[in-house]
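User: structure tokens for this one?
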Amino acid sequence: MNKFITFTVVALMSVLLLGFGFGAPSGMESVALVGRIFWVVLILGVVLVAAVPALRHRVLGRSRLLGRLVAPRLPRAQSAALSARERKVLGVLRRPESWAQSAGLTRESVDRKGQRVREWPALVGVTMTTLGPAARFANPAGMTVADWDEARVSSAVGFHVEISTVGASSVLVTARTRDPFKDAPKASGGSLSAGIPCGIQEDGKPLLASFANQSGAVVGGVPGSGKSAGATSIIAQLCADPAAQFVVIDGKGGSDWAWVAPRAALLNTDDEDLEAVKAQLLALTGLMRWRLQTQKERRGASNFWHAGATVDDPFVLVVIDECQSFFDPKEHMTKAAKELSQEIAALTVNLVKKGRSAGLFVLSITQKPTSDSIPSALSANCGVKWACRVETRAAEESILGARPDGTPDSASPTLIPETRPGGV
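Assistant:
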């Protein structure tokens, strides 16, 4: 048997050498041609294995040494910018064979020789994101993106990762090593048509607040969590747009909104005069009804946003700060005041329900996010919900509603640190 193997290797090497034309004797030209064909096939095979990730994984995946040599890497400039911890994290992600089994991401099959073969996700690319290093994996046969579990993978690799779907059969695993909000530039320079920068998204890009074809927003959070400051930032940017107008009803009864008085159509800082608040909301209801009844004839469109905001027909942003002062009957002592608060809440809900097509938007802000402070009918009709830091899951749901299935716990406003104003 050993002699046969030796003979075969010597014969193959002879043919390959002849393929290079090294001293092919007369009459051996056909053998040299076969050698050249072997070389061509060998070179093409190497190129295919190097170029096709799935094939590379199938051919080299069982060899840890060869697999690491051909595994995707970051460009040199990005690699040089990594911290020591990020290099270590990326090194772990690039070796799925070391953690796939612990994460429940291996599959066993039987090859044509009857031998059991273990497969794991194939590494097909690495990149840097604003959150940290990330690796993209292609699933082996019999595995789907649904098999990837963040908690299991995080436990297997030893650090927190986030998993997102890329196409039908691959995933992106991102290691959270960076804070995208650290040193983020302050948003500014928005407009009614382009959107108002109101924050930074998790990927580091600005978050734009759009009012077009929206009728209301609910903002809630504990005192000092950034509610009024966030609203102030949005309105300050809109002040430069002559096609925007403001009505501010301040339930704090202080001077936080005094700065907007020269620009606003109305500023009410009397938190105890419920009759005045009711009258102002009735006036807004009258404006809304007039627009809905006449704008088709006046502007050629039944929807305010189809014609757009103008100086003569401006977008109207209604801000009700500390709305619990007006909506919650428990905030008042007399029967008449309780009844007035219910009327005020009903008028506000009506504006939110019908104001979209009339170019009205109601922004309700509260530090007491409960069903009394934010009536369910109001929350249900608001397309925008913004939760700053809150202390309980019940307060979170009063603002945002029930958390959708699959939402990570890290997205909860109960986890926002006290040192960071803002919301989700």
